[in-house]
Amino acid sequence: MKRLILGIAEAIAALVLTIGAFTFFKACGEHDGKFMACHWAQNAVVLVGIVLTFLALVRIFIPEEKIKTGLAIGVFALSVSVIFIPGTAINLCMMDDMACHTTFKPAVIVVAAVTAVIALADVIAGYIKAKESK
């Protein structure tokens, strides 16, 4: 039951990252008919968020515990990596008061970190369950 709750929490956090990145904490929009670099960071976060959501949903429905743990490891690794997309892997706007710096980047970091913590707890729970079943 604990692993099911963790799996559902992973899926919800991944959905918040995916949907939030192009809605309520999106990066800067179009300026003078051009997209800023932060737009591409937003697209990358959405893409990784879609993959995270898919992995988390598959993880819920797979009955094999070892596969669940492997998928949780993947969710953890992707969650940590998405933290470094805005501002590190892909540059953001030059002005620090733009939405990409004030809203998008902090929100991505927080939501991805929460997702990583949930996934890590899931990995640990899977490891403990595997130890108990031996």
Describe the structure.
This protein has about 130 residues and is mostly helical. About 75% of the residues lie in helices and about 5% in strands. It has one domain (about 1-134). The protein has four helices and two strands. It has a two-stranded antiparallel sheet. A hairpin with a 2-residue loop joins β1 (about 30) and β2 (about 35). The mean pLDDT is about 90.
Which sequence of SSEs, written as H and E, runs from N to C? Answer: HEEHHH
Spans where pLDDT lies below 50 across 5 or more residues? none
The assigned structural class equals mainly alpha
- Total number of helices: 4
Major β-sheet, in short? 2 strands, antiparallel
Span between termini:
19 Å
What would the principal axes of the Cα set say about the shape?
elongated
Q: Could you tell me the mean pLDDT?
A: 92
How many distinct domains?
1
The neighbouring-strand order within the major sheet is 1-2
Report helical residue fraction. over 70%
Q: What's the number of extended β-strand segments?
A: 2
Beta-strand fraction estimate: under 5%
- What radius of gyration results from the CA coordinates? 16 Å
Summarize the structure.
With 134 residues, the chain is mainly α. It is built from four helices and two strands; from the N terminus they run αββααα.
Question: Keywords for this structure?
Answer:
4 helices, 134 residues, 3% strand, mainly alpha, 74% helix
Layout of helices and strands:
Layout: H1 2-21, E1 30-31, E2 34-35, H2 37-61, H3 65-83, H4 99-133
Antiparallel strand pairs: 1-2
